[in-house]
Each structure stands twice: as C-alpha cells, then as structure tokens.
Design goal:
With about 475 residues, the protein is an alpha/beta fold. The protein folds into 2 domains: about 5-110, no CATH class; about 150-465, 3-Layer(aba) Sandwich (Rossmann fold), CATH 3.40.50. It has 16 helices and 11 strands. The chain has helices at about 5-10, 10-25, 35-40, 50-75, 80-100, 110-130, 190-195, 205-225, 230-245, 265-275, 285-300, 320-325, 335, 350-355, 380-390, 420-430; strands spanning about 150-155, 165-170, 255-260, 280-285, 305, 325-330, 345, 365-370, 390-400, 435-445, 455-465. The chain has a 7-stranded mixed sheet, sandwiched between helices. Strands 1-2 form a two-stranded antiparallel ribbon. A two-stranded antiparallel ribbon has the order 5-6. α15 links the parallel β8 (about 365-370) and β9 (about 390-400). α6 (about 110-130) crosses α11. The protein starts with a helix and ends with a strand. The chain binds S-adenosylmethionine (SAM).
Length: about 475
C-alpha cells in the first residue's frame, strides 16, 4: 500500500534514487527512513554549502519522485531510476548556477563539491559491484597472498599527456575472465561504508588518486559520446583493417581469434568481438579492470551514469562550464553494442600471462593500440607478440612511441629502451614480421575536447604479417 514512508524512501525504486543522490552528502547520517532523513536534514551541519546541498537534494528528490509517482498514476511510461537521478543532478546544478548568477557567492564551490560527489557515487557503485567484493584496506599496502594481489611498483604509467607518475598499481599475474558476465578472482571483501569515512582518504597515495582521475578520462575515450571522434580516429581504422583481412570469418566454424593487449576499458576489444571475432582484451591495471567490468557487466541502459571527468584541472579551460560539464556513460549500452559470447577480458601482465607455452601460435591477430611503448623493454613485447601470433597471422598496431618510462630509472637503475620507429620495425622483422601496410594517423589521446591544449599524436599505423615457418 502507498504511504509517505513507502515513497520516501523505503520503496526499492525510490531508495535507489535517494541513495544515488544523497548517500555521499549525508554520509553517516544517511538513511532511507523518512523520520531519520528529516532529523538529519534539520540537524546542524558545520559547513554552510554542505547544509545547503543536503537540504536541497532532499527537496529536489522528493519533488522528482512525487512527479514520477503522479506521472505513473496518470498512465505515463515509467522513467528508469537513472533518468530521475540525472534530472536531480541537473536541477541541483542549475540551482547553484542561478544562485551564483544572482550575485550570492556563498555557495560558489557547492557546484564543485556536487560534481566530486557525483564522481564518488559512480566510483563507489563500481567498487560495490565488483564481485566478489573487494577489501580496500588491502589496497593500502602490498598485496597479500591468497587475495587478489596488488603490488605498487615503480613505473610511469600510461598517461600520454602527463609524464609524472612514479608508481602504478597493477594486478600481479592473475587472470580474470568475463564472458559477457563477471570477473572471477580470489575472494576479498569490501564495505562501501568504510569509504564514506573521510579519514580513509588520508591513506590514499596521490598517485592512486591520479589513477582514478585518469580512468575517468579514459571512460570518455571508450564510453562517452565525446570520445566518438577519438574512437573514429583510433578504433575505426583497426576495425576496418580486421574486417578486410578476415572477409570469410562468418563462414568459418571457429571465428578467428584476436588478442588486444593493454585493452584499457575494453571498448576496442568489444567492438572486435562484434565484428565476429573471438576477442580477448588483456589489461593489467586494476583500476581499468574494475571500471570495464562495471560498464560491461552492470550498466543496463545507455547514459545510465553521470561523471565529471574534467573537474580536476584548472588549466587550459575556456570557462567554468567546460570544466563542470557532465558526461553521460555509456553512450551505447554494452548490451546494445552486444557483449558477445566470444568476448572476454583477461587480467594480468601481458608478458607474464601470454608468455606461457599454451599461448604460442594461438592468435590469428594481435591488435595493439597505444600499447607497445608502455614497457621498459619494447623488444620483449615484440617477441611475445611474435610468439602468440600464429604463422601467417597479423599484428595491427597504432602507436606514437611515447615511451612511458623514458628518463625514469627503475628500482635497480633499470633503464628504458627507446627505439626509433625504424628500429622497432627492424626488431619486428627480426621476429618474423613483414610489413604489409603502413601509414600515419593523426589523433589525440584522452584529450578534453574543449581544452585550449590538446596534444596530437602522429601515430604509426601498420599491419604486419608473421612469415610462415619453412
Ligand atoms: C595508453 S593505454 C591504451 C589503452 C587502450 N589500448 C586505448 O587505446 O585506449 C595502455 C594500457 O596498457 C595497459 N598496460 C600497460 N602495460 C601492460 C602490461 N604489461 N600488460 C597488460 N596491460 C598493460 C595500461 O594499464 C593501459 O590501460
């Protein structure tokens, strides 16, 4: 039976909307019981802006849910929770903007706080969805045996525009696969409640904060409408090349197998499977795997989530609006893209996972996109690619050769080998590859389309074929 308490907010649908909009603000005061919510909203909030946001989000959510309820009563089609959450998000932002325009500057950073909370909401949901659950206390130190092992190790990372990372967190040689379902890994536990405890943040190394921001930017590249241009520049030529190289793949009893090392958030590997390949994306960065798993396995509708990827830098910005603009993801629901049976993500270090003898000659195609310069020793990558590609198979590569470890000494004064394109091709030839096609592709990488600074890469794009053994 409908009652006030049912609607606000014990009903499953309403509680989903309320949680999404209010949990990060109310933190430990959060509740779905109307009485407790009213007590919390009327209580003392030390910070004026947070107090405003807490009360405002309650008012807007109540209004939105009541409006939805009336619409349904009058036969209008129901809106999914994600749409209502987006409406509430927009309403709060609009209110804050209007307050500023009216000359009241007291809530100026309220908008920024709101955007950060919206990002936290997305991140918490991502972490909560990761099955089995994660114990983030283990994230604070070295990986422990018997659980998903995370190790901090010196490396620059993969950020093409910022060469200042000193460490990276990666999954240590663990393979996790999801075949249109979920990642599997050893059991670990995690409570999102702990994350709302602000003292926890003091333990998070800045380098990890930076990684999370970097993942948010990669989300735009792989899953945002704004990333379409860069996907057209990078993914399209690869997909067209695969399409033309394997014209009879649909007729074959077993579709050709394609491996995508350094798959990032998985979009390219997924698109390759949609072309009718068995496609495996390989990725070692824990953050990337959690995020791609969430988008691929847990998003139900296009534009389900809102994030603010551009709020973390004040540089090169035309306007505050540009910085504070929301991005809806995924621009196409993975289910509408078609998470096919032939698609999986394999988690672990490419060199460790694919140097197994069982992988030798297993792949009809290897596709690398902005990947082969992510190592200190590019020769090892080329050797491994040559081992896994079958005789007569192909290696398609798009790469600007930024060399992530350039000028960064490793733990034991390990150096980085930075070969020129000519030398890289020589090494590839040594490992049995012959160039069939080569051209330059002009593209950006995770650049903010509205920034005054956009790095462009004049990347080499090639198709090489592995010579048949005589
Ligand atoms: C520059 S990003 C490119 C991602 C994706 N290919 C794209 O074009 O958007 C390189 C990716 O390779 C991953 N990576 C780097 N070294 C790796 C390794 N040894 N094994 C697996 N993945 C690796 C990084 O975590 C990162 O996601």
């Amino acid at each position: 039976m409908e009652s006030r308490d049912h609607l606000f907010f014990s009903c499953h649908f309403c509680s989903e909307v309320w949680q999404a909009t209010a949990k990060n603000i109310y933190k430990t005061r959060f509740s779905t019981s109307w009485h407790s919510v009213v007590v919390a909203a009327c209580s003392n909030w030390q910070d004026r802006k947070i107090c405003y946001l807490a009360r405002s989000v309650l008012q807007v959510t109540v209004y939105t849910l009541w409006h939805e309820r009336n619409g349904r009563k009058h036969g209008e089609p129901p809106n999914p929770a994600s749409r209502l959450i987006q409406r509430i998000d927009k309403q709060i932002r609009d209110q804050l903007i209007v307050i500023g325009l009216m000359g009241d500057r007291r809530y100026d950073d309220g908008l920024l706080i709101w955007c950060i909370w919206t990002n936290s909401h997305f991140i918490l949901n991502m972490l909560e969805a990761f099955e089995p659950s994660l114990d983030l206390s283990k994230h604070m130190g070295k990986g422990k045996t018997g659980v998903l092992s995370i190790e901090l190790q010196r490396m620059e990372g993969y950020d093409y525009s910022h060469k200042n990372h000193s460490a990276d967190t990666r999954i240590n040689n663990k393979t996790c696969e999801f075949d249109g379902s979920q990642l599997n890994h050893d059991h670990v536990s995690f409570s999102s409640h702990d994350l709302l405890d602000s003292s926890l943040q003091t333990h998070v190394p800045l380098v990890d904060v930076d990684k999370v921001r970097w993942v948010l930017r990669n989300i735009v590249r792989d899953w945002g409408a704004e990333g379409q241009t860069t996907r057209d520049e990078c993914h399209k030529p690869i997909l067209e090349e695969l399409d033309s190289l394997f014209p009879d793949r649909q007729k074959e009893s077993t579709p050709p197998a394609c491996l995508v090392p350094g798959a990032g958030l998985g979009r390219l590997a997924l698109e390759i499977s949609c072309l009718g390949f068995r496609s495996v994306g390989n990725e070692f960065l824990y953050y990337m795997m959690i995020c791609s798993s969430f988008i691929l396995n847990y998003t139900k509708v296009p534009d389900e989530w809102t994030v603010y990827p551009w709020i973390y830098t004040n540089c090169n910005s035309h306007s505050e609006d540009d910085q504070l603009r929301p991005i809806s993801i995924p621009e196409a629901g993975p289910s509408s893209v078609g998470v096919t049976k032939g698609f999986s993500m394999c988690c672990g270090d490419f060199l460790e996972v694919f140097n197994e003898s069982s992988q030798a000659g297993m792949w009809d195609a290897v596709v690398t996109c902005f990947f082969i310069d992510t190592t200190r020793n590019i020769i090892e990558y080329i050797e491994t690619i040559s081992t896994v590609v079958k005789d007569g198979g192909v290696w398609i590569n798009l790469e600007p050769l930024c060399y992530h470890f350039a000028d960064i000494l490793g733990l034991e004064n390990e150096i980085s080998i930075e070969l020129s394109l000519e030398d890289v091709k020589r090494v590839a030839s040594h490992y049995g590859f012959e160039i069939e096609k080569e051209r330059t592709i002009d593209t950006t990488y995770c650049a903010n389309p509205r920034s005054m600074q956009k790095n462009r890469y004049y990347s080499v794009f090639w198709t090489m074929r592995k010579k048949c053994a005589i």
